[in-house]
Design a protein that fits this description.
3 helices, mainly alpha, elongated, Methane Monooxygenase Hydroxylase, Chain G, domain 1
Length: 85
């Protein structure tokens, strides 16, 4: 069983990290839906918003930097493929 202090710290960290992760996931999901719907102008803005959300989450430690980088790379690749179709 963790100590009382580590339990308190864990609760504080979860409260700080969860909204950041949720926002990043929501932005990525929104961007992917717009890309799939072929609404490329809105999708470009959504991808930029998703990248900002992922960068903030990574900067604050809510997600690992490599995880954020991988997600950004994948979503940008998906946008590029949609543009070239």
């Amino acid at each position: 069983m963790p100590s009382a202090k580590s339990a308190r710290v864990s609760i504080r960290r979860r409260a700080r990290n969860t909204p950041l992760r949720t926002k990043a996931k929501s932005q990525v999901r929104n961007a992917r839906q717009l890309i799939d719907a072929n609404d490329l102008e809105a999708a470009e803005k959504a991808v930029r918003d998703a990248i900002v959300a992922l960068d903030k989450a990574a900067q604050k430690g809510a997600v690992h930097a490599n995880n954020a980088s991988r997600r950004k790379s994948r979503i940008m690749l998906q946008l590029q493929k949609a543009r070239n179709l």
